[in-house]
Amino acid sequence: MKKVLISALLGLTFACTSQAGTLHVGTEATFAPFEFMDEQTKELTGFDMELIAAVAKAMGDDVKVQNMGFDGLIPSLQTGVIDVTAAAMTITPERVKRIDFTEPYYQSGLVILVKKTDLDKVKDLDSLQGKRICAQIGTTGAMMAKHVKDAKVTEFNSITEAFMELKQDGCTAVINDKPVVDYYLVRRADDTVTTLPQVFDAEYYGFGVKKGNKAMVEKLNAGLKKVRESGEYDRIYQKWFGANK
Ligand code: ARG
Predict the structure, then answer these.
(1) What's the 24 CA to ligand 1 centre distance in angstroms?
(2) How big is the CA angle at 208 (ends 47 and 141), to the nearest 5 degrees?
(3) Worst-scoring range by mean pLDDT, 19-23, 45-49, 159-163?
(4) Residue 213 C-alpha to ligand 1 middle, in angstroms?
(5) How far is the CA of 30 from the centre of ligand 1 (A)?
(6) How high is the pLDDT of residue 189?
(7) Is the C-beta atom of 144 inside 6 A of ligand 1?
(8) How far is CA 20 from the centre of its chain?
(9) How far is CA 7 from CA 2, 4, 19, 20, in A?
(10) What's the pTM value of the predicted model, to 2 decimals?
(11) Mean predicted confidence (pLDDT) in 74-91
């Protein structure tokens, strides 16, 4: 009798703390059009936000999104604060050592954003040697910047600050994901800056999960497959990238 009661209680505790049905998502929401704050509704929106919500829904779950620093996402997975990252995060060999990823869900690449007035001096990555380069902290753009000989790299918490710094001539270039730079150029109508023709385009975004959480990767991949097959992926893709493609 006592045993039955204890296991019943344990079952109850488990049911309460595991919060079945809610997928805890971590993001860094200065990265339009993937994740950003809608000025009107004050809600987080974007391609990743809609896609992860659709994937969760396909698995019968709701999402709860937490906005944090990009460099806080991997530690938050490791400590179990979040179940998954939806943050335009590129699947890189370094990250694969620390976390696991789902199947790729978006192909991306990096570009270099510069002042139009510098176009005669700055033509490619090599011409940034010895210059100041701005990027978002912990990103592949920042990693690429650090590989440029003698470059002084300033890493900002948000990509918006990096764009601002370039505008104010605090750095010669920003290295960042092409779709985000393109969106910025179109939306902000900042016609003092432009991208260099060089595109470094072999990056794939994946949803990140805690290392070894095979069940979660499988669940998300199954959800992603459903969302692709139902046409929902295409609908979301068209909504955010249709006009540019
Ligand atoms: N794709 C780049 C990376 O993985 C940049 C991602 C930045 N994402 C963000 N939500 N701020 O490093």
Answers:
(1) 19
(2) 70
(3) 19-23
(4) 22
(5) 10
(6) 58
(7) no
(8) 25
(9) 9, 5, 18, 19
(10) 0.90
(11) 98
CA angle, 106 then 212 then 139, to 5°: 40
Residue 110 near ligand 1, beta carbon < 6 Å:
no
pLDDT value of position 20: 53
Report yes or no: 94 and 82 within 8 Å, Cβ to Cβ.
Answer: no
Model confidence at 211: pLDDT above 50? yes
* Structural tokens at position 96: 């694969």
- Count of positions (residues) in the chain: 245
* Mean local confidence (pLDDT), 127-153: 98
**Model confidence band, residue 187 (pLDDT cutoffs 50, 70, 90):** confident
Side chain identity at residue 241, one-letter code: F
Say whether pLDDT at 188 is over 90: no
CB 175 within 8 A of CB 110: yes
Q: Is the CB of 87 under 6 A from ligand 1?
A: yes
Question: Mean pLDDT score of the chain, rounded to an integer?
Answer: 92
Using one digit for the tens of pLDDT, what is the confidence trace for 218-231?
999 999 999 999 99
Secondary structure in 3-state letters for the chain: CHHHHHHHHHHHHHHHHHCCCEEEEEECCEECCCEEECCCCCCEECHHHHHHHHHHHHCCCEEEEEECCHHHHHHHHHCCCCCEECCCCECCHHHHCCEEECCCCEEEEEEEEEEHHHCCCCCCHHHHCCCEEEEECCCHHHHHHHCCCCCEEEEECCHHHHHHHHHCCCCCEEEEEHHHHHHHHHHHCCCCEEECCCCEEEEEECCEEECCCHHHHHHHHHHHHHHHHCCHHHHHHHHHHCCCC
